[in-house]
Amino acid sequence: MSKNFDVVVIGGGPGGYIAAIRAAQLGFNTACIDEWKNEKGGPAPGGTCTNVGCIPSKALLQSSEHFEHASHGFAEHGIEVKGLGLNLEKMLGRKNTVVKQNNDGILYLFKKNKVTFFHGRGSFVKGDANGYEIKVAGAAEETITAKHVIVATGSNARALPGAEFDEKLILSNTGALAISEVPKKLGVIGAGVIGLEMGSVWRRLGAEVTVLEALPTFLGAVDEQIAKEAHKLLTKQGLAVNLGVKIGAIKTGKNSVSVEYTDAKGEAHTGEFDKLIISIGRTPNTIGLNAEGVGLKLDERGFIAVDGDCKTNLPNVWAVGDVVRGPMLAHKAEEEGVAVAERIAGQHGHVNFNTIPWVIYTSPEIAWVGKTEQQLKAEGVQYKAGTFPFLANGRARALGDTSGMVKFLADAKTDEILGVHIVGPMASELISEAVVAMEFRASSEDIARICHAHPSLSEATKEAALAVDKRALNF
Ligand code: FAD
Ligand code: NAI
Q1: Residues paired with residue 142 on neighbouring β-strands, in sequence order
Q2: Burial of 311 (0-12, 13-18, 19+ CB in 10 A)
Q3: 309-335: per-residue pLDDT in tens?
């Protein structure tokens, strides 16, 4: 097996494995090193996203939504379910199968694209503009060389000081995806993306969920009108979201966790929970890379410091994904991975940070791209807004899911679309149209003039675009 590569990628998450495949497509002799182990100790490439992130969370969100529909939703369709039961072991087993299919898929893609895969930890030994020596510590230890190195080592859950993760009572995303019995009372610290998605999963399966959030506003980064609607809908489902809390002491007992906190009014409380998920953000993972040994610069927050092209301070060393600045999203990591491989090949890879979509996979889903109304106000941009509720959409009525709306924000003078915000059914799919439109710098009128299939949820997108010009047809 070759030990000398044109490109070595450290980390096989969405940033790393996609960078490796693109580099190989471009004709480089490429290797990817990833240390993630499955329960048998074998390789499990795909990183956080595949193993304990995007994929397993969406598998459980789907399963738990089916359960909720069967428990509460089917009756209105005239479907009577008797003797409904929950086999959590099977549900978790299905999630594990979905994860494994994705791990195996990546190993297959490596073979197909002739990417050499190393299972183990990669760390810098030494190097300069002429090349780098990388140690791979796996079942055996070996050293390989690379002309270019792409670091894609991802991120880890941030712990709350004084409440380290034990994955039994105090859970990170890893434990939150593998609770073997539905907790009666589940505490969640942090009403961010993980808190809301995992809180939704366990609430649907029967847990009483209390979410404790430090900030006084719900989903502060989301368009305010959409966040308010989402807050109302999620609260109505039974997710108790407490804003403006201050967390105090967290103590674990034999089978429970107590959390002392003060609420927004300053009143003291103690929450008693069977399990506690802590989802207060993630920290970049540079452990074991020997970054300091080769002089790879980190920024003040511990991320690998990169320029706009993902170049680090070291010649021919690049970094992508969660370990560098920018949103911690799988598709952002992938786009950076592709762009870096293309830059190494002398091409002009590009990532447009203005058109990276965000999706929160609650029910209804929340999705957006571009600027929020509060951002436009703060920036003094003159804009027009148009909204359309799913309540007035025929397909949403037929589905039995009429919550939420689509909202367009367009430049007051040029009508260029500046942001699109959705809370509602299949928002994750609907947002793609807005991303495409914004990439092509479309106006709201462009969307309003495009023929959309009837009946479809996407008609709500067209109607919201029409509403920018105050001429929605169905509302
Ligand atoms: P990672 O996926 O973290 O991969 C890094 C890999 O590098 C890991 O396999 C790690 O083991 C390996 N590694 C680290 N150091 C070394 C080393 N020295 N040697 C060898 N290997 C090493 N994003 C979305 O876009 N959509 C979602 O729906 C979504 N859901 C999420 C749900 C949860 C619960 C969580 C936690 C995250 C979710 N994310 C989602 C975020 C997404 O998972 C990350 O943004 C994405 O995984 C980042 O990709 P990455 O390649 O940068 O890093
Ligand atoms: P987050 O940044 O989304 O949310 C963290 C929340 O915790 C914030 O609301 C913050 O104000 C709050 N918080 C911080 N410190 C606190 C404290 N001491 N007490 C109470 N609240 C506190 O982080 P999260 O949910 O951990 O997710 C990490 C990242 O993973 C996300 O930002 C996202 O990039 C990615 N992710 C993406 C998903 C998706 O795309 N659907 C799904 C899940 C995660």
Answers
A1: 136
A2: middle
A3: 999 999 999 999 999 999 999 999 999
Kindly state the tokens that stand for 433: 């149209």
> Ligand 1 atom 41: the closest Cα is on which residue?
329
Most ligand 1 atoms within 8 A of CB, residue of 49, 151, 306, 328 to mutate:
49
34-53 confidence digits (pLDDT tens): 999 999 999 999 999 999 99
Please give the structure tokens belonging to residue 385.
Answer: 């807004």
pTM above 0.90, yes or no: yes
Ligand 1 pocket residue status of 51, Cβ below 6 Å? no
Give the chain's end-to-end CA distance (angstroms, integer).
Answer: 65
Catalytic residues: 454
Check residue 140 and give its pLDDT: 87
Map tokens 């994750």 to a residue: 428
Taking CB atoms within 8 Å and a gap of at least 24, the contacts of 201-206 are 201/57, 201/60, 201/61, 201/64, 202/64, 202/176, 203/237, 203/238, 203/239, 204/64, 204/65, 204/67, 204/68, 205/64, 205/67, 205/86, 205/88, 206/86, 206/182
